[in-house]
Every structure is written in structure tokens, then in C-alpha cells.
Amino acid sequence: MGIRDRALAAIQCLAMAEPTAEELKARIAELEQKLSSRRPKTLEFRVSEKGGVSVYGLGRFPVTLYYEQWMRLLGTVDELRAFIEENKSKLKTKDAE
Fold it and tell me: Domain check: are 3 and 24 in the same one?
């Protein structure tokens, strides 16, 4: 390796210097902003390709059920609410946004 090659390698190392703490914090803030802007703020409903009703905005993936399944689930809303309340201490929570 000649002097020129060593000089170029040194310049490349300097150009690839590790970022400062402030630069890292700024990058983290930028990435967090991108992540939060991609999440739906409200629930969104769509009809899927297969004819189901998909709910977006609850988590990473949509929840999709067919008409009969939604009607059956909605018919048990009171029981579901009671079950959730009774078992609240056992349930894990996530930030819903």
C-alpha cells in the first residue's frame, strides 16, 4: 500500500467518523417522527379483497372478520366488556395511538 492509498484510507476513515451524541439524538427524533406519522390516528374500516371487514389502526396488522363474525362479536359486546373488566389485572396494556 503506497502513501497515496494510505492517505485516501485515512481520509475515508475521517469521513466515516462516528456521529456525535447530538447527531444521534437528532437521528432518533427523526426516526420516531417518521414512525409516529405512519400510524393511523383513528380507526379505519375497509372491505378486504375477500369481502371481509378490516379494521386498521388497532395494531401493526389489520383485524379482518367476515360479516357473520362481526355480527356475532358485536352481539356479545356487554359480555366482552364484563370479561375484560373482570380480568383487567391479568391483561397487558400497550399505548394505543
Answer: yes
Domain carrying residue 9: 1-38
- 53 DSSP β-pair partners: 47, 65
d(C-alpha 68, C-alpha 53), whole Å: 10
CA distance 82 to 77: 9
Q: What is the pTM of this model?
A: 0.54
User: Are 46 and 84 part of one and the same domain?
Assistant: yes
pLDDT, tens digit, for every residue of 50-90? 999 999 988 889 999 999 999 999 999 999 999 999 999 99
Residue that is written with C-alpha cell 393511523 in the block: 40
Strand order in the sheet with 44-47: 44-47, 53-56, 63-65
